[in-house]
Write a structure and sequence with these properties.
815 residues; Beta-Lactamase; 4 domains; 5-stranded antiparallel beta sheet; 18% strand
Amino acid sequence: MSWLEKLPLKKKLTLVILLTCSVVLLLACGVLAVYQSFDFRRTLVRDSTVLADVIGKNTRAALAFQDENSAQQALLTLQSEPNVSAACLYDAQGNQFANYVQSGINVPLPSHPSTDGHVFESGHLGLFHAVILNDKRIGTIYLQTDLKRMDERLRVFAGVGLLVLLGSLVVAILLATPLQKPISGPILGLAETVRTIAERRDYNVRIPIQGGNETGLLTDAFNKLLAGIEERDKALRGEITERKNAEGKVQSQLARLELLHTITRSISERLDLQSIFQVVIRTLEDNLPLDLICICLYDPNANVLTVKGVGTSVVALEKELGLTREAQIPIDENGLSQCVRGRLVYESNVTQVKFPFPQRLAGAGLRSFVAAPLLVESKVFGALIAARKESESFSSGECEFLKQLSGHVALAAHQAQLYEALQQAYDDLRQTQQAVMQQERLKALGQMASGIAHDINNAISPVALYTESLLEKEPNLSARAKDYLNTIQHAIEDVSHTVARMREFYRQREQQLTLTPVNLNQMIQQVIDLSRARWSDMPQQRGIFIKVETDLDPALPQVSGVESEIREALVNLVFNAVDAMPNGGTLTLRTKISEKAVRLALVEVSDTGIGMEEDVRKRCLEPFFTTKGERGTGLGLAMVYGTVRRHNADIEIESAPGKGTTLRIIFPVPATPAAVPGKDTAPFIVPSRLRILVVDDDPLLIKSLRDTLETDGHVIVTAGGGQDGIHAFRTAFESKEPFAVVITDLGMPYVDGRQVASAIKGISPSTPIIMLTGWGQRLVAEGDIPPHVNQVLNKPPKLRELREALAQCVASTRS
């Protein structure tokens, strides 16, 4: 219905009148048409009934006498009735007796009569009527009448109704045009006035009131509405002016807030103080009309501001201002002094301020400036200074913006300073942590190693005793046998040093260790010989060839150290180099001198193997770190590292995947060569035929001690544990057969050596006690010799040390 809404008011009124008239006429015509149809049908039924009654009376005789011709002739009289299309006469049994069908049509007749009455069917009326003779039904007459006459009458009626409707519409149009003007005129006038007001925005216009009807009331109400609108328009214009001013201020504030957000976001991404200052200065220059912008840091001790960042605009004023980076600004009594106390300073006209810094700005043509403190936790550590060439050019909003910005800059700068301090502290902590972690790993390894030192020392003690005894007591040994025994003795000494060092390697070299001059060139050759099976024989069994080369500096000075430890470290490096060349290659051992600030001796072990990744190179000295899988323990290089630390040396590792590895040990060359310690040849009297009690939980060690001491002529009684030793000593003491000396182990199950020594001293305080233990060196070094113990010997024992200890014990007892 949008088209109806768009029609003018006049046409709408005319359309309403026409539609009303049309609907009324159509309803009237419809009612008349329905009535005419109903009346025609009623008349048709009546006429058909009369006709059927007449035909029935005319055919009674024919039915009574069964005269079909007479009946047929009677039905043919219906030809005078054009509306009757067919007729049929039925006898008393309901059989067709005679019929009539209008020529030219084909009408099906009922085969049997129905109940008396009529029925309107499609296009015709069907009527059954009884034929009565002497009050007896002798047959039935059926008439079929078409409805063409009714249709013709309805068509004629429709044509007449249409003509009446059209005439009525013409009359309605002629009457509606003048009659709708009293209604549409005032409304159209009102609309025209509204259009005029809308176009001119003139709310002073008023509409004349016509009459006291609804239109007049509408006009009066509209005039009052215009008066109210006029008042509101005046008020609204004032509000719009105020809002525009406020909006301008808000837009400026929003722009400053956006600028503040942009600067804050930019500086929050930076942790460098200088970059923070440069971002702030560059952004302010791009977005605010400033002739000077700089950021200074405050030194409260010197009471000066030091320029840390300046804008590009300062370049033009550099000669007059002298505000270059790192330039210092003394704090005057006014302005800057207030700023460093935490207050925002705004000077609208610096020419009227008689202080050095404002006058300095005035000399460069600047007339107003703002100094905002960089304040964190109520402490000023800098200032942001902005200036312009116009006086009174900073608004209150700009001053507030610079104050807020200085707070953000101060916070970001403070965080940057904290970050730098934290980063330095973190770097220091990380280095310390790495050193502590490395020390803890080594310490854990040393503590673990010290736990197994006792068992290893017990295992090698019989070998050491029997080897030394054979070399001393068997003069008829062949040269080859003596050489073998000397090699065994040498190997036992190296193992002994290794075991003693297992718990010590994570510590700095102890001062009590005896250092001797070490010829590194000679040691290189020894290492090659000791490791020959690993780099020559074993690889050749797998069809692999490893070439060993040496590059020795003949002028290499001697270094101070423990020969066995350095030799073992170099053997470990050779083993690692061989493992790094699974397909063969070249192994190079090199010595050279480094003449730097300190004279150094360098030993290098290089291979052409697979090399190491950077992360592996960084961790390869850690205990238990290995890349060899189940074949490796992760202790080889850790032991080397321990040896290097004990000798105050350094180790360097150069490696790259596929390019081999070079490990370099750097020894300091002593200013004066270490003295060669001579063997202790002080004479002592070896006691003979002493009654000695040996207490230990290791049967092999007991047997080797007994065999060795019995060879010297002593009487040996053994005990396999601490409790057995105490019992044996008490029994002998009570039997008046006391022991001259007791030799006991320290670590034994149930009753250890400390308890044995305490119990024996409780029985016989004068009996000397020698403690033979794998922890002997540690006990002596740490001053942890158990009470009641006269002598402490380290495992594996040496015959000379054992004899000397026995001699000292016997001498102290006699004295």
